[in-house]
């Protein structure tokens, strides 16, 4: 085993991982299937919306000059419903009954809303003056043919899909879902529901990380659990040949049974860096197994999932050509005293409450052991403490990663 290198700062490690990710190829899909996918190309409008000037209200299309002084009475010469049109011109002293979305007839330059009128046969009395352009949506108010409505790299929401539909775009070019292979290691691990032998524990990492992968927009390929021997590890790791990223779990530290570097090194693993100045998650590896990037996560379940948030989720975004999703920091108020931090960046599991002043208050759990998955499941946020952060007291502002809405 090589001599352990100095601990790498978290941000340096994240950037090294992101720089190694190459966006995956694009594919064409139907607009109806695009929710949550990442655009590979800009989306350009194929129509102008609205295509012509239309009314923003139900009422009457008039010439503003005719209704400058009120009350006044005009002759109704026709109507312009949505989906229809009045084909003639509006002359002085005339009005056209119009409905929301109806095309504004030639000659008219304003809309009087129906609440400001009284109708008697073909005569309409206007009781409120209007101005030129009032309640008229001009052609191209929303967008014009050729406008870029959605930029490449955008994660598509329901709003985006509605806009693409309005732009008359039925198909989209999106990044295919990256294929992320997950391989756990350890004789002590069994899958949920399997018989538990002496000195064995149930593995949560495969299932949890695969869920995080899917929530991040990728396809998860669970390779299973490799035993603590070279043949088993080599055999299962071979299943990652077609993956865009291999994630190993466990076998990343310095124990006699930690085989990732030694065994995979014989099959082409080139390590870029190893060991990060963070807690939990110090024994993290990044490198390449042949042409496949490999992210080696610690085996402790909390360490694995925190590293999944800090490194794996952004790596998937980079493979998708999307904006780095974070982790984004929010300012919260500390709910309990914390001592001075050491050289490792801390991610403390904490609960959020609302203070008397309406500010969010983050109170870290008293025990932060990296094997305690229940604390992570019940946490609302992770308090981030930089290396060598000074002691902080109740009421001090601190940075936190809010977990709600991350699919995490």
Mean pLDDT: 93
Name the CATH class of the largest domain: Alpha Beta
Q: Radius of gyration, rounded?
A: 31 Å
Oligomer: single chain
Specify the structural class. Answer: alpha/beta
What does this molecule look like?
The chain is of the alpha/beta class and 408 residues long. The protein has four domains: 158 residues, MoaB/Mog-like domain (Molybdenum Cofactor Biosythetic Enzyme, Chain A), CATH 3.40.980; 54 residues, Molybdopterin biosynthesis moea protein, domain 2, CATH 3.90.105; 84 residues, Molybdopterin biosynthesis moea protein, domain 3 (Molybdopterin biosynthesis moeA protein, domain 3, Beta Complex); 73 residues, Beta Barrel (Beta-clip), CATH 2.40.340. Helices cover 17% and strands 30% of the residues. It is built from seven helices and 26 strands. The strands form seven sheets. Strands 7-4-6-5-9-8 form a six-stranded mixed beta sheet, with no helix packed on it. A six-stranded mixed beta sheet has the order 16-13-17-21-20-18, sandwiched between helices. Strand 23 and strand 24 form a beta hairpin. Helix 1 packs across helix 6 and helix 3 runs parallel beside helix 6. The chain is elongated. The chain starts with 9 loop residues before the first helix and ends in a 6-residue tail after the last strand. The relative contact order is 0.13. The mean pLDDT is 93.
